[in-house]
Request: fold
Amino acid sequence: MKRMCTLLPEHTVRKITLLLGLLTILYTGFAQVGAPRLNVQGALKNSDGAAIPDGTKTMTFKLYHDGAGGTAQWQETAEVTVTGGVYNYNLGSTTPIDLDVFSQRVYLGVTVDGTELTPRVELTSAPYALHAHSATTAVSLTGCKGAVGDVKYSILPLDQFRQENGDCWVLMNGAGLSSDTKLNAAYGVAELPDARGLFLRAHDDRNSNRQDPSRSADTPPGTYVGDEIRSHNHSMQAAGNHTHTGAFKEVSNDWRGDGNDSPGNGTGNDDNETSMNGSHTHTINHTGGAETRPKSINLYVYIRIN
Reply:
C-alpha cells in the first residue's frame, strides 16, 4: 500500500510515502496479548522527491476511528531513525495498544516534526486479527479486506464470500446504495454497476489508438455498453453462371387468317418462343449460437461498499 502525503511548507520534510507492509504482528506469548506491537515502514522525501538526509526524526503515531478529524484512540511519540529516507517502527513499543481499538475501522495518522500528514492510512488487514483471535493462534483475518471500491471475482456465493472477506462486500448487481455507505457518501456512487452476465473491460483513458472505441476517454468506469458486431463485409462467389437465349421471328406485314392476332412470318408456324435457361435462387444459411463471445467461465463479482 502506498500513500503520498504533503506537509506544510515550513518543514524540511515535504512528502511521505507510507509503505504499510502491513502489518507485521509480533506475538511473544500469552502475557503480551494485551500489548501487541505492529510494524510499520515508510519513506520520507523532500519536496524534490529525494530521500531526506539520514538522522533521527520526532514522530508521533496515532490510531483513529475516523479518516479525518475525530479523536485519537491511541498514540505514542518516539525518536525514529531514518536511513536512506526509510524508517521502520513498531507501534506499541512504549505505549500499549488496547485490542478494543481494532473492534472497528482504524486509521493510522503519522506526525513528523509536529505536523500530521494527510491523508491518514486505513488499516485493512492484520491488526483486526488481534481483536479476533488469541495470542497463541494467529489465524487469517475474516473481517473486511481490501479498500472501498475494490472489485473481486470469486466462486463463492455471497454468504460464504462474506465469511472470508467481511460483510462490507456486496454483489455488483446494479442495486442502489444508501447514503450512509462509504462508497456513496465519500465518492457519490448511488447505484452500483450491474456486472451480471457481462465481460469486464479495463478503462481506456487514451484519446487516440483506443482499444475501446464505443466509449470516450472521459466515460466513467462502470458504464454499460450494449452488444454489437463490428462492421464488416461479406463476399459472395459467383455460382450458377448461365445465359438467356431466345429465337425471334421477323414480323411481316401479313397477318395469318386463322383468327389469332399474334404476329408471325406468314408461314403459320408460331412455336419458336423466347426461352430461359438456368433459372435459380441463392440461399445464404446462418450458423452459430445465441451470442458473440470469447471462451469464458462465469464467476461472482463483488464490490466493497464500506
Summary: The radius of gyration is 38 Å. Residues 206 and 231 are 22 Å apart (CA to CA).
